[in-house]
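Dig into my protein:

:::
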Amino acid sequence: MNFQLIGVNHNTAPVEVREKLAVPESRLPEATKLFAGHPGVEEGLILSTCNRVELLARTKNGSADLRGFLRDYFRMDPADFAPHLYERAGNDAIRHLFRVASSLDSMIVGEPQILGQVKEAYATARAVGAVHSQLDLLLTRAFAVAKRVRTETAVGSSAVSVASVAVELAKKIFGSLQGKHVYLVGAGKMSELAARHLLAHGAASIFVANRTHERAAQLADKFGGEAIRFEQLYETCDRADIVITSTGAPHAIFRREHGELFMSRRKNRPMFFIDIAVPRDVDAEMNKLDGIFVYDIDDLQQAVTAHVAGRRQEAERAEAIVDLEVERFQARIQTRDVVPTIVSLQDHLETIRQAEIDRARGRLGELTPDQEHALDALTRGIVNKIMHTPISTLKTAARESEATTVVDVVRRLFNLQNKKEDQG
């Protein structure tokens, strides 16, 4: 199983590193296609979210230079990201994918968004022809494992998301959201989740700005808010007490001069920015202004601690499910590896049997139907007895580490290797 995975996440890299490696949704198809064409990569997928960037591949020999792809694609000095990388191979890569899809590796254990993000990455990879064969089988199984974890454990109970934790943080800052005005910058799924939580906790009104104004209008209508044209963002943002920003901009859209303008218009009334975008939407210099409080995705980690502690027991149950599913997937893949050899062996011996029956007919002359039946049963029984031991051995080896060696021996013993090469 030549699966390889490399990446960074919220545990290994600060947001200033993750944002440099983030792949915008608009560039994901092109990046995935390039990754699948990287030397040594047979199939590939790129997962890029606010908390992680990961490359998953099936490789020719299990040792493709995935770091080289990161270096070349992002044009970064490896020294800038190498200390933050983790790499997985074989079963460890499978286990990691299962844990990610099941939200066991998330900043907020049990949050439901990550499974959808993995599915979107999978859909993109399939659309550009980067996923097929074994990686397709692996991802399909990962989705089934995630469903099993959510069904059989309470790890996803009282669903928590980055958006909901952000709202909880806003409540701690202001004491109450009653009467507070909220500005959503970006009208994606994260913003919609934030809007739901904000209204549920008493927010007075919601403004929505998005580069595609129609999308902003749709979201504003859904929650009885007001859509603002994106080009009017800086003219109107000071109307909000709380700004939750989650755009796909490649650079900060709120800088220090904007904060100074907002404070001047608000007569220094506090303004709270929750930046859940990667790359970040709010320049760190904004946080140095009196009256402006900025929290980015990494700052939400502290608010997550209580949620993680309360779910530890359920997470342990989920980890046990993942371990079992990794073993099952390994056995399934290895069984798939020996099936072609079993089929080749059966075809090879059946060809010999039929040739010997034809030769016997030539010597014995015309046979009665009973004699034909007896000859067929006799030769079939002999062949089945011959096949029993090698097929049983192959099936047993499929569950062990020596599967490749046993397959090679059986092919050599019955001259199947040479036959396969001749046909190729």
